[in-house]
Amino acid sequence: MQAWKTLLLVVMSAIVVACASTDESEEGLPSGSRTEQAFYEAAQRQLRSSQWDLAIKNLRALEDNFPFGSYAEQAQLELIYAYYRNYENDAAIAAADRFIRLHPQHRNVDYAYYMKGLASFTEGSGLFERFLPTDMTRRDPGSARESFAYFAQLMARFPDSRYAPDAQKRMIHLRNLLARYEIHVANYYFKRGAYLAATNRGRYVVENFQQTPAVPDALAVMVQGYHLMEKPELEANSLQVLQANYPDHPAFRSDGSFNYNYYKGASGRSIVHRLTLGLFEKSDPRGFDSREQYNVEYRREEAPLPPELM
């Protein structure tokens, strides 16, 4: 009987050791090694090989087991990056906030501010957006506003940061997105017959998003809106500004007169467009949208915004 107990104990011990070895193998750790350096080196290998889930697991384990170790602060920074690359944007922002709170004077705290903006910049970019192009200017602007605010914090606190030039480019891009969103809303209001609301959106762009490519369309929105509301003086003032600054706006006819039917666009869609839900054929736009003319980012011969810094 004692022999059976001994044998059972040996078997159970072997199972426990095997399970532990399996766990360590899954973590990418050397067998029997759970030191701070082992966790960190395993995480580095996994980051280099894009094994984001495993890297996150080891970086978190490192911090949990060695919160005051020599790699703890660096692990916290790299955890932000791993979450971001794993499309866990909320977790990346939370990790960045935590690092800023714990280490406000750290020499690399500017990186945490930058990653907050970057994670918000790509918020909502899931599998669908990766395989099918979507018009980001038509999406809820909440993430864009949040990202802009985070990048603005970085620029205000660390104007000489190595991340400042890229943050500034992204802020310009985000500002353009926010301005274009207002034009889309104005076009929607025109379609609904809410001319005052549409005109107010145009005026908002002119007053708050100067020097963005949406300004020409914003002025055209104001001309159209004041015309429909029968306010000739305001219409004339807006038209004068549009003619003086953007005489080649597509709402102008060849003789220089403003086409008050331009905003209606083309109402018809081809059979191909209807059958494919617009995936293979671009429909004629309804409303004011001259992005391809005034924004190099949307010109077909131009490259889009530079790739994200990884």
From TrEMBL:
Q: Where can this protein be found? A: Cell outer membrane
Which superkingdom heads the taxonomic lineage of this protein's source? Bacteria
Query: Could you tell me which residue ranges the Outer membrane lipoprotein BamD-like domain spans?
Result: 35-234
| Pfam families in UniProt | YfiO (PF13525)
Question: What main location does UniProt list?
Answer: membrane
Q: Where is the signal peptide?
A: 1-20
Q: How does it sit in the membrane?
A: Lipid-anchor
Gene3D superfamilies documented for this protein: Tetratricopeptide repeat domain
Which InterPro entries does the UniProt record give?
A: BamD (IPR017689), BamD-like (IPR039565), TPR-like_helical_dom_sf (IPR011990)
What keywords tag this UniProt record?
A: Cell outer membrane, Lipoprotein, Membrane, Palmitate, Signal
What is the documented function of this protein? Part of the outer membrane protein assembly complex, which is involved in assembly and insertion of beta-barrel proteins into the outer membrane.
Family, according to the entry, reads as follows: Belongs to the BamD family.
NCBIfam families the UniProt entry points to? OM_YfiO
Q: How does it assemble?
A: Part of the Bam complex.
Q: Which HAMAP family match?
A: OM_assembly_BamD
Q: What is this protein called?
A: Outer membrane protein assembly factor BamD
Organism in which the protein naturally occurs: Microbulbifer flavimaris
